[in-house]
Design brief:
CATH class: Alpha Beta
Strand order of the largest sheet: 3-2-1-6-9-10-11
Helix content: 10-25%
Number of helices: 4
Number of domains: 1
Shape: globular
Radius of gyration: 16 Å
Structural class: alpha/beta
CATH superfamily: NagB/RpiA/CoA transferase-like
Largest sheet: 7 strands, mixed
Strand content: 15-25%
Number of strands: 11
Order of helices and strands: HHEHEEEEEEEHEEE
Distance between the termini: 33 Å
CATH architecture: 3-Layer(aba) Sandwich
Length: about 190
């Protein structure tokens, strides 16, 4: 069985081999999966902003789509090594933090308990929704402060791996994974 660090390195390398065009095309396919699902029936979304240099899923078109459809958006900001959630709209000014991640410069903090859906960046997950991120535990700590009913949705270019990822006690699993070709449910039932 591979350790998390090995799997993280393997799929980070694979993701870095994608061209800018491939990233944009696959991101669009992921967003189309979301647009055609019942996920968009919710009204309050927490969405990560992509780290372009790390070839993450481009979430900006998804944010635009949701805002145009009168949905509420919150985005992350790192404070004291934890994610805080801030309101986002078309007027929000962004700046890069020390990890090169875009964050709101000025905005109102949101109540995490009000969020209905959180879109989570990740490197890979397994067939049970166990995920591997960058290893800092930011999203595990953030999700622990959210409502128990919040939908935890990973966005990834890769399908789940068959080999099980061994979680630590604090790790929180995904409810769904959206890939360019489908939405994978880790819950008993899901309507697309």
């Amino acid at each position: 069985m591979k350790v998390k660090a090995e799997v993280r390195l393997e799929f980070t390398k694979k993701r870095m081999n994608f061209s800018e065009k491939e990233i944009l095309e696959m991101s669009e396919q992921i967003i189309n999966q979301i647009k055609e699902s019942s996920i968009i029936n919710h009204s309050y979304f927490h969405i990560f902003l992509p780290i372009i240099e790390k070839n993450e899923v481009n979430t900006f078109p998804l944010i635009d789509f949701l805002l145009y459809n009168k949905k509420k958006i919150a985005i992350p900001k790192i404070e004291d090594n934890e994610i805080e959630s801030y309101e986002f709209d078309f007027q929000t000014v962004l700046e890069k933090n020390k990890w090169n991640i875009l964050e709101p410069k000025y905005s109102n903090k949101t109540n995490n308990k009000d969020l209905e859906v959180v879109f989570i960046p990740l490197i890979i997950c397994d067939f049970k929704g166990n995920r591997i991120g960058y290893g800092k535990g930011f999203y595990d700590k953030f999700l622990a402060k959210c409502s128990k009913s919040i939908l935890k949705i990973g966005l990834n270019f890769f399908e789940p791996i068959l080999e099980e990822i061994i979680n630590e006690k604090h790790d929180i699993t995904l409810d769904y994974l959206v890939t360019p070709s489908r939405i994978v449910s880790f819950l008993p039932k899901f309507e697309k």
